[in-house]
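Usage example:
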Amino acid sequence: MKNKVFAPEGQTRRDCLIGAAAWAGLAGLGLRPGMASAQATDPLPSWNAGPAKARILAFVAAVTESGGPDYVPPAERIAVFDNDGTLWAEQPMYFQAFFVMDRIKALAPKHPEWKTKQPFASLLKGDLKAVAAGGEKGLLALLAATHTGMTSEEFERSVSEWIATAKHPTTGRPFTSMVYQPMLELLSYLRGNGFKTFIVSGGGIDFMRPWAEKTYGIPPEQVVGSSLGLKYELRDGKPVLIKTAQLVLNDDKEGKPVGIQRHIGRRPIMAFGNSDGDFQMLEWTSAGPGPRLSAIIHHDDGTREYAYDRESKVGRLARGLDAAGARGWTVVSMKSDWTQVFAPAR
Amino acid sequence: MKNKVFAPEGQTRRDCLIGAAAWAGLAGLGLRPGMASAQATDPLPSWNAGPAKARILAFVAAVTESGGPDYVPPAERIAVFDNDGTLWAEQPMYFQAFFVMDRIKALAPKHPEWKTKQPFASLLKGDLKAVAAGGEKGLLALLAATHTGMTSEEFERSVSEWIATAKHPTTGRPFTSMVYQPMLELLSYLRGNGFKTFIVSGGGIDFMRPWAEKTYGIPPEQVVGSSLGLKYELRDGKPVLIKTAQLVLNDDKEGKPVGIQRHIGRRPIMAFGNSDGDFQMLEWTSAGPGPRLSAIIHHDDGTREYAYDRESKVGRLARGLDAAGARGWTVVSMKSDWTQVFAPAR
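Running the assembly step on the lines above writes:
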């Protein structure tokens, strides 16, 4: 996947690993993977030739072209990605919700009072409709019971153990196998071209960090997400960080640019999302000077994944679809832009 | 400064740039810079041979020795540094306080009411004692007037303009010239050995980011500091982030491990501080498993810099000095461990 094509003066070593300009040219010609010469390797083999792929390749070529009008120094090549529905699937509900349910079940023997206390009782009986009917207050109680009161390391362990064994309810696959192969290729391609890749997700920051590095190649310090409080204290003389219920960041909608500024401190030049929760992140990214690429992953493939947008309760996408054209945002069709959806089992 | 000495199998390219093991050996022999062979270059030329330098070199050698018992993968080589008093000076008061004073003076023409309103009136008259007598409430009013109500970009601009022109009141040097040459060498040496270097400071995150990359080689996303709120909104159709007075993180004492977990999500293996505000950061770093290096910069050089510790109002150091021996923390004497203090003017 790393093909040293050219090395113009002044470019960093990383700039030269892929030869972005060559690929942009191929994409513009409508060449498909496999049609390229034996000497070149397509950095995005799971992307069909088409406007989305061409736009990505042309953008990367432009910002890495030393001396070119759109050149961006490596330090400023910040790319941000929503997680749920952008890097991995989010149906029939956010995967973190399965973690909450499984944790409640695992913790139930230590909490006999949950047998009669809502929403725990309904959840333990498998009555999710009743849980949902309990509204936000009930969901916050479930979140508090599974995400607070333990040390940061205990929570990390509970996530790591769960993610290693839990299976998606309809596909039966591990959740970390329900990541999108075209997006893994894109992350790798960007990093090969000197980009720093960040997750900026409405999901919990501490829920994503334990597996994001292995799954996406994104280290903990490049994960931004919704954040609860932490309290430093000594337990038996040993320092610990206790997770508290304080909401430090709701990393959704207007919270996404806030999380970006707080954690990254620099405006991204590229942003990928899939729902209206990502609208402000794309808007903030696009409003900066110089070259920008904002894109929406459109879930329009009911055969290989799921088809949903305006009416979906999870990952609703309406405003973004309406605005994309006028704002110059790229809409990626999972159906026609991707040759495959999920990464091979690893 | 980069001397490729050896490249054992399995080490990354970065591991091999310095040849840390060779340097640890030289330091152990008590060799001074200049006494080493012509083929080797001291990565820390402003550090005198002595226990502090030997400890640093031995630590870096140990964690980068592929297959060694203390080997740490590059992704986990996180090093954190306090800023005020650790990377740059902090006397006669935190440099950010000079920024506040200068900003109040610059903004005064637009605020005629400040002529009679405290603590602004005292500050504008140069009566800092009266300002201090106003206590925390007065200082917060000054902070609010200079750090909130503007966009993140307007604030960044005000910092950049100030740092480019402001001078230290007694040395007359630009504040960014009052950084410690031995620490610049240490940051560079660590990065050359695959470490990721972070600032973790009680100072304002948005105050440090505009100049930290140029001054220290530390990009905005690796700066952790005290943080105020941000509010996303549209002004004339253009998205902006407005700085608000909400205290999101007080990155001092117990707040430092909280800031580390929130921003980095991984426990550092190395931490440098200089005051009791850094105590918990050193404690948190040292309490992790495997090799750890925690160190305190001791301001004991009244000739070349300042001499202060237990009784100082700025950068008070008492508990850390008392605890260092028993906890295995390295105490760096600016007087005897450093051949020079300040970086040459640039």
